[in-house]
Amino acid sequence: MKNTLLLAIILFVFFIVELYAGGKNEAEIDIQDTDGWTALIWAVYWNRIEIVELLISNRANVNIKTTKQHDILSEEWLPGTTALRMAGVLGREEIVQLLSNAGANE
Question: Each residue of 21-44: pLDDT tens digit?
Fold first, then answer.
């Protein structure tokens, strides 16, 4: 988990620098770490609404599923969560609305 978190932080910083520098490459925005988490999913997890908005406005895919899903209640990893599902489980209502408005459907 520590390596995954480190990779996610590095990717997260990379995405933000790219976005502010004018990069619009969707493949870069939607890159997944070893657990399948994208910058959008990490932003939801850390409740970074402004980053969620920035990623959505730059066409991040709101329906990408992870290769592993963190079940907050049981602390188990299961296949296939989305940013919307994570936002719902974590009670991030404002982010749920943002993702729904952007076309998230799972």
Answer: 555 555 578 888 878 888 898 899
pTM of structure: 0.72
Q: Measure Cα distances from 42 to 64, 74 in Å.
A: 12, 19
* pLDDT for the residue numbered 74: 58
Contact 47, 68 (CB under 8 A): no
Query: What domains, with CATH codes, occur in the chain?
Result: 2-101 (1.25.40.20)
